[in-house]
Amino acid sequence: MTPQSEDFSAWFNELVLKAELVDRGPVRGTMVIRPYGYRIWELLQSDLDRRIKETGHQNAYFPLLIPQSYLQREAEHVEGFAPELAVVTHAGGKVLEEPLIVRPTSETVIGEYMAKWISSYRDLPLLLNQWANVVRWELRPRLLLRTTEFLWQEGHTAHADQADAMRETMLALEEIYARTVRELAAMPVVEGEKTPSERFAGAVRTFTIEGMMRDGRALQAGTSHYMGTNFARAAAIQYTGEDGRLTHAHTTSWGLSTRLIGGVIMTHGDDKGLVLPPRVAPYQVVIVPIGRGDQGAEVIAAAAALAQRLADSGIRAHVDDRPQLSPGFKFNDWELRGVPIRLELGPRDLAAGTAVMARRLGEGKEPISLDSAPARLADELEAFQDFLFERATAFRDSHTVTTDEWDDFTKAVAVGWARALHCGTPECEEEIKAATGATARCIPLDGEPESGPCILCGRPSAYGKRVIFGRAY
Ligand SMILES: [Zn+2]
Fold first, then answer.
1. Of the residues 3, 168, 204, 356, which has the fewest C-beta atoms closer than 10 A?
2. Residue 347 CA: distances (Å) to CA of 290, 330, 331, 350, 376
3. How far is the CA of 220 from the centre of ligand 1 (A)?
4. Number of alpha carbons in the 13 Å side-chain half-sphere of residue 391
5. How far does the centroid of ligand 1 lie from the alpha carbon of residue 72, in Å?
6. How far, in Å, is the centroid of ligand 1 from the Cα of 419?
7. What spacing in Å lies between the alpha carbon of 458 and ligand 1's midpoint?
């Protein structure tokens, strides 16, 4: 495999195929998610789904095909999405009277039904979530990061007023996204607000969680939008208040997609392959039986019994009993596929009541007792999960520079992030992008109050805080 230091993109593209996470789809820009990759998605998805439900949302499903006229109701929204739309013009052997859009996102169709279902203040808030696929025609597709079709969830909610809708926007960002991404994906994401030029098409405010990948680039891992009354006006989402007055609702939407799997790979992986945080690893422990003939059969039976004991204690364990492959091949294979812990079990280990443990990022191997293996491995997996988060945090912090000097800024964004003051004008952001390739990633929520001259143009800074700039995926 190409080393990360030589060509990070090549490393990523080779790894996702070799590790059997995905395959290229038959249509350019599409991908097949293979079982090993899909399992990672399921683990993230089930945690997100639990949090979404625990915070009062209900799942629903809306149609894939959206009448073109729906999208045209919100001017900024349609302008933002127009270049990426896939449009169905023919069906059933005829030209359609009205073209249909393959959903790029579902604000417009869900808005239509919110308008229908909401009439009184008693119907609010309406808290919906949809698990679905969406299609956005990508001109420069990348497996897992920018694919023409991807899987995601989209939360859509309607509220009586701005305060309640803003509470929801931040709840999705902080209590749902940031927690799942930190606790499961072990990605130390920064929570912040997008600058106006980076906002979602049609939103009043857009918030994001941004992670730093091992090449220093940022990955937007999830976004949450406060729409104000823009979509409510477009779709006539109105309610009669306690005072009897007809009022527009305030809406939000928030989405997190399969690109998060790309984030996990680029946050933790190394030249040997994937490094999976235990909580999203399809197999947390892989047992490789060693030995041939009668002894081999005995070892395989013991490995299966051990895997069952691990499973009983909540550890996802797998026995690699492929007879045609050597132990050495299997060790490399599971290293490539990022399994946190490997156990080797041979006749001599079995006689001694032990197995040999090797950690994905550890030096050397050590024997562990079979009797206490479930408790010991649970501790090891927990420690590995924490270690990955701490390592990624240290990497991010050592590649983030706070600066007021343009020269330092350009050096910082070549290898990581820069925290700088900015005037807030889109033209100046555009100039920074043209000069360095870096964009405004976010205005961190936890930034200290600060002001001064803009890093590029010297005009007074906006936002009252520093902005994080970096090159991004
Ligand atoms: Zn400026």
1. 3
2. 7, 18, 18, 5, 21
3. 23
4. 17
5. 34
6. 14
7. 6
Is the alpha carbon torsion for 319, 324, 325, 326 positive or negative? positive
How far is ligand 1, taken at its centre, from the CA of residue 223, in Å?
Answer: 25
Report CA(450)–ligand 1 centroid distance (Å): 15
Distance 439 CA to ligand 1 centre (A): 13
Q: Kind and range of the H or E element at 132?
A: strand 126-135
Residue 448 Cα to ligand 1 midpoint, Å, equals: 20
In angstroms, rounded to a whole number, what is the distance separating the alpha carbons of residues 386 and 86? 42
Query: Taking ligand 1, which is a single-atom ion, which protein residues have CB atoms under 5 Å away?
Result: 423, 428, 454, 456-457
Q: Are 237 and 128 in contact (CB under 8 A)?
A: no
Check: CB of residue 279 under 8 Å from CB of residue 224: no
Structure tokens at 190: 């920064």
Q: What is the pLDDT of residues 23-51, one digit of tens each?
A: 999 999 999 999 999 999 999 999 999 99
Burial 74-108 (b: 16+ CB within 10 A, else e): beebbebbeeebeeeeeeeeeeeeeebbbbbbbbb
Distance 462 CA to ligand 1 centre (A): 9
Angstrom distance (rounded) from CA 304 to CA 205: 53
| Structure confidence by residue, pLDDT tens digits, 154-201 | 999 999 999 999 999 999 999 999 999 999 999 999 999 999 999 998
Percent of the chain residues topping a pLDDT of 90? 94
Question: Distance from the CA of 429 to the center of ligand 1, in angstroms?
Answer: 7
Give residue 374 CA to ligand 1 midpoint distance, Å. 57
Q: Are 1 and 14 in contact (CB under 8 A)?
A: yes
Q: What is the mean pLDDT of residues 413-418?
A: 98
As a whole number of angstroms, the distance between CA 332 and CA 155 comes to: 40
Q: Separation of 76 CA from ligand 1 center, angstroms?
A: 25
Q: Provide the token pair at 354.
A: 């032990």
> Which pLDDT does position 446 carry in this prediction?
96
Distance 436 CA to ligand 1 centre (A): 14
Encode 276-297: b = buried (16+ Cβ within 10 Å), e = exposed: bbbbbbbbbbbbbbbbeeeebe
Q: Strands across the sheet with 94-102, in order? A: 65-67, 94-102, 86-91
